[in-house]
C-alpha cells in the first residue's frame, strides 16, 4: 500500500499547503517572492500550496524561517504534540491559558502580532538615552544606579 495514496496523507499535505499560503499572505508576499526567497520556482510554491507535492524537511525549515512561523505551524494539530506543562514557566502557562480563551480568529492574530512585536523590542535605546542624560547632567550617582539596575535579557 502506497502511503502517499491514502486519504489521511493527502489531507495532511493539503493542510500544510493551506498553512503555507496563509503564512505567505500574512507576510504580504506573492508566490513569486516566496519562490525567490526559498530558492524554488513559482510553480513549485503553487504546487505546495495546492497540496500537489510533498514538502521535504529542508524546504520546511526554509519556509519556517522565511515566513517567520514555527515548524509546528505547518502541521495539522493532531500531529503536533502539545508542550508539556512542566516545561512552561508560570507566565508562559498563563499566556497560553488566556490565549486559548480568545474566541475570535482576528483577535488571535492581533494578539500574536502584539506578542511578536513586544518580543523583538529591546529597550537599549531608552536605557542608553537615560545613561547619556545622567552623564550630561554630571550625575554620577544616577549613572551608577542605571548601570547597576540593568536587567539582562532572559535567555530563551
Q: Tell me the radius of gyration.
A: 22 Å
Q: Can you summarize the main beta sheet?
A: none
CATH homologous superfamily of the largest domain, by name? lambda repressor-like DNA-binding domains
Query: Which class of secondary structure composition applies to the elements?
Result: mainly alpha
CATH class of the largest domain: Mainly Alpha
Unreliable spans are none
Helix content: 55-70%
Order of helices and strands: HHHHHHHH
- Assigned CATH architecture of the largest domain: Orthogonal Bundle
Total individual domains: 2
Q: Let me know the number of strands.
A: 0
Could you tell me the mean pLDDT? 81
Number of helices: 8
Q: How would you describe this protein?
A:
The protein has 156 residues and is mainly α. Helix content is 60%, strand content 0%. The chain folds into 2 domains: 3-79, 434 Repressor (Amino-terminal Domain) (Orthogonal Bundle), CATH 1.10.260.40; 85-120, no CATH class. α2 crosses α3 (42-49) and α7 runs antiparallel to α8. The longest helix is centred in the N-terminal third of the chain and has 20 residues, at 7-26.
Annotation keywords:
156 residues, mainly alpha, 434 Repressor (Amino-terminal Domain), 2 domains, 0% strand, elongated
Amino acid at each position: 500500500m502506497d502511503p502517499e495514496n491514502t486519504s489521511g496523507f493527502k489531507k495532511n499535505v493539503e493542510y500544510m499547503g493551506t498553512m503555507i499560503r496563509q503564512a505567505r499572505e500574512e507576510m504580504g508576499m506573492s508566490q513569486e517572492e516566496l519562490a525567490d526567497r526559498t530558492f524554488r520556482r513559482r510553480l513549485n510554491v503553487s504546487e505546495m500550496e495546492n497540496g500537489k507535492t510533498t514538502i521535504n524537511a529542508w524546504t520546511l525549515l526554509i519556509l519556517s524561517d522565511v515566513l517567520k512561523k514555527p515548524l509546528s505551524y505547518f502541521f495539522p494539530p493532531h500531529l503536533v504534540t502539545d508542550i508539556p506543562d512542566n516545561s512552561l514557566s508560570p507566565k508562559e502557562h498563563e499566556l497560553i491559558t488566556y490565549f486559548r480563551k480568545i474566541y475570535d480568529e482576528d483577535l488571535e492574530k492581533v494578539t500574536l502580532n502584539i506578542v511578536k512585536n513586544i518580543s523583538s523590542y529591546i529597550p537599549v535605546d531608552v536605557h542608553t538615552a537615560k545613561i547619556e542624560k545622567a552623564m550630561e547632567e554630571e550625575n554620577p550617582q544616577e549613572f551608577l544606579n542605571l548601570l547597576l539596575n540593568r536587567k539582562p535579557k532572559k535567555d530563551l
